[in-house]
Amino acid sequence: MIRALLVDDERIARVELRRMLRAHPAVAVVGEATDAEEASAAVEKLRPDALFLDVEMPGESGVAFARALAGEMRVVFCTAHSAFAADAFEVNAVDYLMKPVSPAALARAVSRLTASERPAVEHLPMDFAIMLKFNDVSRVIRLGEIERFESVGNYVAAHCRLGAALLVGTIARLEKRLNPKYFMRANRAEIVRIDAIRDVESDVGGGLVATMESGAKCEISRRQAQSMRAQMAVL
C-alpha cells in the first residue's frame, strides 16, 4: 500500500485526482495540502510514501519543494504547464502527469509507484515533453527528438531539428536521467542519441568520429569507442 499526499492549490484538481485514485486500491490518499508550507507540515505529520505534487503553486514551487526533500519520498508531478517539464531533469520524479490527467497516464504513474524494485534514478521516457526556447519562441520538443546534448559552462545545449536551446544543469546530472539504451556519453562534453548516428569513422588515437543525422560531427572518445565497437560491431 502506497500512502499518498495530494498537493495542489486548486481544490477541484485535488478532488478529481482523489476520485481517480479510487480505481487504484494500491494507493491510499492520507492527506491533502494547498501549498509547499502546508505540504511540509503534512509530510512531517503523516510521513507519506509518495506525493502527487503540483508544479506551480503560491509561494514555493513544487519543483523547489521536491528538491528540498532530497529523495525522501517518491514524487509524481502534476501540472498543466509543459514549460516546467525541463525541471524534472533535476528532480528524481517517478512520473510527470499533464493536466487534465488521463486514466492511462495515472495508471502508468501508479504502476511505477508500486513497483517492488524501483531504480535509484528513474530514466525519462523518450516521449517526455520539454519546453525549449529558440530565438525567444518556446517550443515543445520530445526527448526522442533531441539529437545530442552538449555541455556549455553551467548549461546544457539540447540540439534538435530546430537548432540548439539551453537547459540549466550539468551534463553529468543529465546523463543519470537518460536511458543508456537510447543515449550514450560520447565524450566528456557530449551525449548523443544512438539512433541519430548516421555513420562513424575511425579517428587518430583509437577514437571515432560520428556523423549525426543533422550532419554535425561528434568525437567519440577512445574509451567510449571501445564500448561502441563491442556493442555495435563497429570496425
UniProtKB/TrEMBL annotation:
Entry-linked SUPFAM superfamilies: CheY-like
Keywords, comma-separated and alphabetical: DNA-binding, Phosphoprotein, Two-component regulatory system
GO molecular function: DNA binding
HTH LytTR-type domain sequence ranges: 140-234
Sequence ranges assigned to domain Response regulatory in this UniProt record: 3-114
Pfam family, one: Response_reg
Modified residues (4-aspartylphosphate): 54
Listed name of the protein: LytTR family DNA-binding domain-containing protein
